[in-house]
Amino acid sequence: MKLYYSSSSPFVRKVLACAIVRGLDSRIERHSSNPHASPADLITDNPLSKVPCLVTDDGLSLFGSQLICEYLDSLGEELPLFPDHGAPRWRALKFQSLGDGILDAAVPWRGEQGRPWEDARDALMGRYKAAISRTVDALEADPPHKHVDIGSITVACALGYLDFRFSSDPWRPGHPKLAAWYEAFAENSGLAETVPA
Question: Which residue of 119, 139, 140, 179 shows the fewest CB atoms closer than 10 Å?
Fold first, then answer.
């Protein structure tokens, strides 16, 4: 399998963490790519010019961390990251949505930080920040479980991205339960081996 990736992308980290947990990391050839430059090879496999993009062994291009993680979960012999039914499934998917929601606000917020200051930009950045703040508050009230599933991996990648890109605006103050959960969960090999630098 071939993975187009950027080492600073939290969505790529989510995919790599899932691959490590599933014991598939050694089967993935990493191909560094700058999606903002729209390189021809990436566009051939993903017309959206986004990472992550996984090309399977049989040549199928999959893009988007949710889809790629679900595909990886269908391979190997490890316990599934996507529970197949009932309350565990919906709880895992809920936390995946919360974590992805943080990233859907944090990644463009980070991009906006380099633009010139203007009222419309400030309002947009305030909206991103408020969405993240509300979501972190919700996670403090109901943190993920300690076991590894797609929800806990996604939330951990989102919180790690906040640490990586927004250290001047820390999320931990006022969130002791979530901070304790994160510190313990971040020791999982999928997270420990994919810390952004």
Answer: 119
